[in-house]
Design goal:
Blueprint (H helix, E strand, L loop, with lengths): L2 E4 L3 E2 L6 E3 L6 E2 L9 E3 L4 E3 L4 E7 L11 E4 L3 E8 L5 E6 L6 E5 L11 E6 L4 E5 L2 E2 L2 E2 L6 E6 L4 E5 L2 E2 L2 E2 L9 E6 L3 E6 L2 E2 L2 E2 L3 E6 L3 E6 L2 E3 L10 E6 L5 E5 L2 E3 L3 E6 L2
Parallel strand pairs: 1-5, 2-6, 5-7, 6-8, 7-9, 8-10, 9-11, 10-12, 11-13, 12-16, 13-17, 14-18, 15-19, 16-20, 17-21, 18-22, 19-23, 20-24, 21-25, 22-26, 24-27, 25-28, 26-29, 27-30
Antiparallel strand pairs: 1-3, 3-4
Length: 266
Protein backbone atom coordinates (compact mmCIF):
# COMPACT_ATOMS: atom_id res chain seq x y z
CA UNK A 1 0.00 0.00 0.00
CA UNK A 2 1.18 3.52 -0.82
CA UNK A 3 -0.20 7.02 -0.53
CA UNK A 4 -0.35 8.90 -3.84
CA UNK A 5 -0.73 12.64 -4.20
CA UNK A 6 -1.30 14.69 -7.33
CA UNK A 7 1.50 17.19 -7.94
CA UNK A 8 0.00 18.89 -11.00
CA UNK A 9 -3.27 19.41 -12.79
CA UNK A 10 -3.40 16.63 -15.37
CA UNK A 11 -4.64 13.22 -16.39
CA UNK A 12 -4.87 10.23 -14.07
CA UNK A 13 -3.08 8.14 -16.72
CA UNK A 14 0.01 10.38 -16.74
CA UNK A 15 2.83 9.40 -14.37
CA UNK A 16 3.84 13.07 -14.22
CA UNK A 17 0.61 13.75 -12.29
CA UNK A 18 1.72 11.66 -9.29
CA UNK A 19 4.14 11.24 -6.43
CA UNK A 20 3.91 8.33 -3.99
CA UNK A 21 5.50 7.39 -0.66
CA UNK A 22 6.21 3.72 -1.40
CA UNK A 23 9.88 4.40 -0.60
CA UNK A 24 9.06 6.12 2.70
CA UNK A 25 8.79 9.68 1.37
CA UNK A 26 7.01 11.23 -1.60
CA UNK A 27 8.95 10.87 -4.86
CA UNK A 28 7.96 10.79 -8.53
CA UNK A 29 5.79 7.76 -9.24
CA UNK A 30 6.96 5.01 -11.55
CA UNK A 31 3.59 3.22 -11.59
CA UNK A 32 0.03 4.51 -11.46
CA UNK A 33 -2.11 4.14 -8.32
CA UNK A 34 -3.35 0.57 -7.76
CA UNK A 35 -6.00 -1.33 -5.82
CA UNK A 36 -4.23 -1.12 -2.43
CA UNK A 37 -3.34 2.59 -2.69
CA UNK A 38 -4.83 5.79 -1.26
CA UNK A 39 -5.11 8.79 -3.58
CA UNK A 40 -5.08 12.43 -2.41
CA UNK A 41 -5.93 15.25 -4.80
CA UNK A 42 -3.51 17.55 -2.91
CA UNK A 43 -5.40 20.66 -4.08
CA UNK A 44 -5.01 19.81 -7.77
CA UNK A 45 -7.57 18.84 -10.44
CA UNK A 46 -7.13 15.43 -12.03
CA UNK A 47 -9.05 14.24 -15.11
CA UNK A 48 -10.08 10.61 -14.56
CA UNK A 49 -9.38 9.57 -18.13
CA UNK A 50 -9.44 5.80 -17.54
CA UNK A 51 -11.22 3.26 -15.36
CA UNK A 52 -9.58 3.25 -11.91
CA UNK A 53 -9.41 0.94 -8.90
CA UNK A 54 -7.87 2.20 -5.66
CA UNK A 55 -8.55 1.79 -1.96
CA UNK A 56 -9.60 5.39 -1.28
CA UNK A 57 -9.86 8.77 -2.99
CA UNK A 58 -9.58 11.78 -0.64
CA UNK A 59 -9.26 15.56 -0.63
CA UNK A 60 -8.35 16.07 3.02
CA UNK A 61 -4.82 16.65 4.29
CA UNK A 62 -2.14 14.48 5.84
CA UNK A 63 1.63 14.74 6.24
CA UNK A 64 2.98 16.25 3.04
CA UNK A 65 -0.49 16.64 1.51
CA UNK A 66 -2.62 19.79 1.17
CA UNK A 67 -6.41 19.61 1.50
CA UNK A 68 -8.51 20.39 -1.56
CA UNK A 69 -8.69 19.48 -5.20
CA UNK A 70 -10.97 17.18 -7.16
CA UNK A 71 -11.31 14.62 -9.92
CA UNK A 72 -13.30 15.14 -13.10
CA UNK A 73 -15.19 12.60 -15.21
CA UNK A 74 -16.31 13.70 -18.67
CA UNK A 75 -17.43 10.41 -20.22
CA UNK A 76 -18.36 6.83 -19.28
CA UNK A 77 -16.01 5.52 -16.60
CA UNK A 78 -15.82 2.97 -13.77
CA UNK A 79 -14.36 4.02 -10.41
CA UNK A 80 -13.75 1.49 -7.66
CA UNK A 81 -12.88 3.33 -4.43
CA UNK A 82 -14.19 4.59 -1.11
CA UNK A 83 -14.68 8.36 -1.32
CA UNK A 84 -13.74 10.77 1.48
CA UNK A 85 -14.81 14.39 0.98
CA UNK A 86 -13.49 17.22 3.13
CA UNK A 87 -14.12 20.92 3.61
CA UNK A 88 -13.06 22.42 0.28
CA UNK A 89 -16.02 24.51 -0.87
CA UNK A 90 -16.03 22.11 -3.78
CA UNK A 91 -16.47 18.50 -4.81
CA UNK A 92 -14.33 15.39 -4.48
CA UNK A 93 -15.48 14.08 -7.87
CA UNK A 94 -17.29 16.10 -10.55
CA UNK A 95 -19.16 14.14 -13.22
CA UNK A 96 -19.71 16.47 -16.17
CA UNK A 97 -20.57 13.59 -18.52
CA UNK A 98 -23.88 13.89 -20.33
CA UNK A 99 -26.41 11.34 -21.61
CA UNK A 100 -25.95 8.66 -22.87
CA UNK A 101 -22.74 8.32 -20.79
CA UNK A 102 -22.86 5.88 -17.87
CA UNK A 103 -20.56 6.24 -14.86
CA UNK A 104 -20.15 3.35 -12.41
CA UNK A 105 -18.86 3.92 -8.89
CA UNK A 106 -18.34 0.98 -6.54
CA UNK A 107 -17.44 2.03 -3.02
CA UNK A 108 -18.72 3.82 0.05
CA UNK A 109 -19.05 7.48 0.97
CA UNK A 110 -18.49 7.05 4.71
CA UNK A 111 -19.02 10.69 5.69
CA UNK A 112 -16.20 13.04 6.55
CA UNK A 113 -15.50 15.12 9.64
CA UNK A 114 -15.59 18.42 7.81
CA UNK A 115 -16.43 22.03 8.49
CA UNK A 116 -18.71 23.10 5.67
CA UNK A 117 -19.59 23.09 1.97
CA UNK A 118 -18.35 19.75 0.75
CA UNK A 119 -19.79 17.30 -1.78
CA UNK A 120 -18.48 13.81 -2.45
CA UNK A 121 -19.92 13.26 -5.97
CA UNK A 122 -21.31 16.19 -7.95
CA UNK A 123 -23.15 15.32 -11.15
CA UNK A 124 -23.13 18.51 -13.19
CA UNK A 125 -24.19 16.71 -16.37
CA UNK A 126 -27.22 14.54 -17.08
CA UNK A 127 -25.43 11.21 -17.35
CA UNK A 128 -26.50 8.04 -15.56
CA UNK A 129 -24.61 7.19 -12.37
CA UNK A 130 -24.74 3.62 -11.08
CA UNK A 131 -23.49 3.72 -7.49
CA UNK A 132 -23.01 0.57 -5.41
CA UNK A 133 -22.21 1.31 -1.78
CA UNK A 134 -23.44 3.20 1.27
CA UNK A 135 -23.69 6.99 1.27
CA UNK A 136 -23.38 9.30 4.30
CA UNK A 137 -23.54 13.07 3.82
CA UNK A 138 -21.02 13.89 6.56
CA UNK A 139 -20.22 14.04 10.26
CA UNK A 140 -19.95 17.60 11.52
CA UNK A 141 -20.50 19.97 14.43
CA UNK A 142 -20.24 23.40 12.80
CA UNK A 143 -22.64 26.05 11.58
CA UNK A 144 -24.29 25.53 8.19
CA UNK A 145 -22.10 22.62 7.08
CA UNK A 146 -23.92 22.06 3.76
CA UNK A 147 -22.57 18.56 3.22
CA UNK A 148 -23.84 16.39 0.37
CA UNK A 149 -23.07 12.77 -0.43
CA UNK A 150 -24.28 12.78 -4.06
CA UNK A 151 -25.56 15.84 -5.92
CA UNK A 152 -27.69 14.93 -8.97
CA UNK A 153 -28.08 17.65 -11.57
CA UNK A 154 -31.09 18.57 -13.68
CA UNK A 155 -32.13 15.55 -15.72
CA UNK A 156 -29.51 13.24 -14.20
CA UNK A 157 -30.22 9.63 -13.29
CA UNK A 158 -28.89 7.96 -10.14
CA UNK A 159 -29.28 4.22 -9.57
CA UNK A 160 -28.00 3.50 -6.07
CA UNK A 161 -27.72 0.12 -4.36
CA UNK A 162 -26.90 0.70 -0.71
CA UNK A 163 -28.05 2.66 2.32
CA UNK A 164 -28.34 6.46 2.39
CA UNK A 165 -27.92 8.63 5.50
CA UNK A 166 -28.11 12.36 6.12
CA UNK A 167 -25.18 12.00 8.48
CA UNK A 168 -24.70 14.01 11.67
CA UNK A 169 -24.83 17.69 12.45
CA UNK A 170 -24.98 19.03 16.01
CA UNK A 171 -25.16 22.79 15.45
CA UNK A 172 -28.26 24.00 17.32
CA UNK A 173 -29.91 26.25 14.76
CA UNK A 174 -32.91 25.47 12.58
CA UNK A 175 -32.04 25.13 8.92
CA UNK A 176 -33.50 22.76 6.34
CA UNK A 177 -31.34 20.27 4.51
CA UNK A 178 -27.99 21.15 5.98
CA UNK A 179 -26.70 17.64 5.36
CA UNK A 180 -28.10 15.62 2.49
CA UNK A 181 -27.26 12.05 1.59
CA UNK A 182 -28.65 12.69 -1.90
CA UNK A 183 -29.66 16.09 -3.27
CA UNK A 184 -31.96 15.56 -6.25
CA UNK A 185 -32.03 18.23 -8.95
CA UNK A 186 -35.07 19.15 -10.98
CA UNK A 187 -36.34 16.49 -13.37
CA UNK A 188 -33.81 14.01 -12.05
CA UNK A 189 -34.56 10.33 -11.42
CA UNK A 190 -33.39 8.71 -8.18
CA UNK A 191 -33.68 4.94 -7.78
CA UNK A 192 -32.51 3.55 -4.43
CA UNK A 193 -32.43 -0.08 -3.37
CA UNK A 194 -31.61 0.17 0.30
CA UNK A 195 -32.66 1.99 3.46
CA UNK A 196 -32.85 5.80 3.70
CA UNK A 197 -32.45 7.60 7.04
CA UNK A 198 -32.16 11.17 8.22
CA UNK A 199 -29.02 10.54 10.22
CA UNK A 200 -28.60 11.89 13.74
CA UNK A 201 -28.43 15.59 14.52
CA UNK A 202 -29.89 18.72 15.99
CA UNK A 203 -31.35 19.96 12.73
CA UNK A 204 -31.44 19.68 8.98
CA UNK A 205 -30.27 16.09 8.43
CA UNK A 206 -31.98 14.62 5.36
CA UNK A 207 -31.46 11.28 3.63
CA UNK A 208 -32.86 12.40 0.25
CA UNK A 209 -33.68 16.06 -0.43
CA UNK A 210 -35.63 17.48 -3.37
CA UNK A 211 -36.84 21.06 -3.50
CA UNK A 212 -38.34 21.07 -7.00
CA UNK A 213 -39.41 18.29 -9.36
CA UNK A 214 -37.91 14.81 -9.38
CA UNK A 215 -38.89 11.16 -9.47
CA UNK A 216 -37.74 9.22 -6.41
CA UNK A 217 -38.16 5.45 -6.15
CA UNK A 218 -37.07 3.67 -2.97
CA UNK A 219 -37.12 -0.06 -2.37
CA UNK A 220 -36.29 -0.16 1.32
CA UNK A 221 -37.24 1.43 4.63
CA UNK A 222 -37.33 5.18 5.25
CA UNK A 223 -36.79 6.54 8.75
CA UNK A 224 -36.23 9.77 10.63
CA UNK A 225 -33.70 9.12 13.39
CA UNK A 226 -34.53 10.95 16.63
CA UNK A 227 -32.61 14.24 16.92
CA UNK A 228 -30.24 15.44 19.61
CA UNK A 229 -32.06 18.57 20.71
CA UNK A 230 -35.18 20.72 20.42
CA UNK A 231 -34.62 22.08 16.89
CA UNK A 232 -35.06 18.82 15.05
CA UNK A 233 -38.13 19.40 12.91
CA UNK A 234 -36.09 19.68 9.71
CA UNK A 235 -34.78 16.13 10.07
CA UNK A 236 -36.36 13.75 7.57
CA UNK A 237 -35.64 10.50 5.82
CA UNK A 238 -37.01 12.05 2.62
CA UNK A 239 -37.68 15.80 2.34
CA UNK A 240 -39.81 16.94 -0.60
CA UNK A 241 -40.32 20.56 -1.57
CA UNK A 242 -43.55 21.93 -2.94
CA UNK A 243 -42.76 20.97 -6.53
CA UNK A 244 -44.36 18.11 -8.43
CA UNK A 245 -42.12 15.40 -6.99
CA UNK A 246 -43.13 11.78 -7.58
CA UNK A 247 -42.08 9.55 -4.69
CA UNK A 248 -42.61 5.80 -4.49
CA UNK A 249 -41.55 3.79 -1.43
CA UNK A 250 -41.74 0.00 -1.19
CA UNK A 251 -40.97 -0.51 2.47
CA UNK A 252 -41.75 0.86 5.93
CA UNK A 253 -41.79 4.57 6.78
CA UNK A 254 -40.98 5.45 10.40
CA UNK A 255 -40.99 8.82 12.16
CA UNK A 256 -39.32 9.25 15.54
CA UNK A 257 -39.20 12.26 17.85
CA UNK A 258 -38.33 15.59 16.27
CA UNK A 259 -38.75 14.91 12.56
CA UNK A 260 -40.47 13.06 9.74
CA UNK A 261 -40.07 9.86 7.83
CA UNK A 262 -41.24 11.73 4.74
CA UNK A 263 -41.86 15.49 4.82
CA UNK A 264 -43.62 17.44 2.06
CA UNK A 265 -43.62 21.20 1.62
CA UNK A 266 -41.67 24.11 3.10
Amino acid sequence: MANYKAVANGNWSALATWQDDSTGSFVASTVLPGAADVVYWNNFTVAIDQDVTVLQIRNDSTTGVTAGGGGTVSTSRTINADLYHFRTFGSLIIISATSPSVVNINGNIPGTVAGSYSTAVNMTGNATLNFVGNVCAGLVGGQSPNLIGIQVSTGGILNLTGNVSGGTNTYALFQVGTTKGINAGSNSIINVVGNVTSGIGTYGNVGIFNATTATINITGNVENIAGLGANTTANAGVYLGDGATLCSIIGNVTSNAGGHGVFYGF
